[in-house]
């Protein structure tokens, strides 16, 4: 995909990702940020297309996410760039879908895709043993989605990412380990602890 090749000639340096992150935080060199982002642009595009189901919009999202990194990486210390970027890209796409819900479904997008966020919430609630009758009343209430999103943000990074990948993207333990860079033996613990803490948070907010 030609549009992905926007940073020509920047990948020849021998700096590690950690070095690039530290140097970018120090001097704000966009070339360093481009060198960090370039290897993952296809991953970001594929993830965006999975959610948005529109080629041009997914291409735009790749660039919008890069623009977001310009400021975000100056304010956040990131240990695992790939897993952090995956989470940023996914959240960006979910926000795009939420915006669509407010203005209607654009041409070319499958009708069922509009409810992806609600369906994802349903999967998590079902795995928390919520009664189906209660769940059906909750799925289409915006405040339920808002509470879940806020509670997800309270989880530690490892738990949040593991829960999102397992329940929302239906990844297996091994896939989560590869995507997030977690030790395989710790993935199950991150998911279980994340689900428990998410349930506690939502119960405190009166959502389940």
TrEMBL record:
Residues 36-101 form the RNA polymerase sigma-70 region domain. One of its GO terms (biological process) is DNA-templated transcription initiation. Keywords: DNA-binding, Sigma factor, Transcription, Transcription regulation. GO terms for molecular function: DNA binding; sigma factor activity. Coiled coil: none annotated. Transmembrane segments: none annotated. NCBIfam families: sigma70-ECF (TIGR02937). PANTHER family: RNA POLYMERASE ECF-TYPE SIGMA FACTO, RNA POLYMERASE SIGMA FACTOR HI_1459-RELATED. Belongs to the sigma-70 factor family. ECF subfamily. This is Sigma-70 family RNA polymerase sigma factor. It comes from Dyadobacter luticola. The lineage of its organism: Bacteria, Pseudomonadati, Bacteroidota, Cytophagia, Cytophagales.
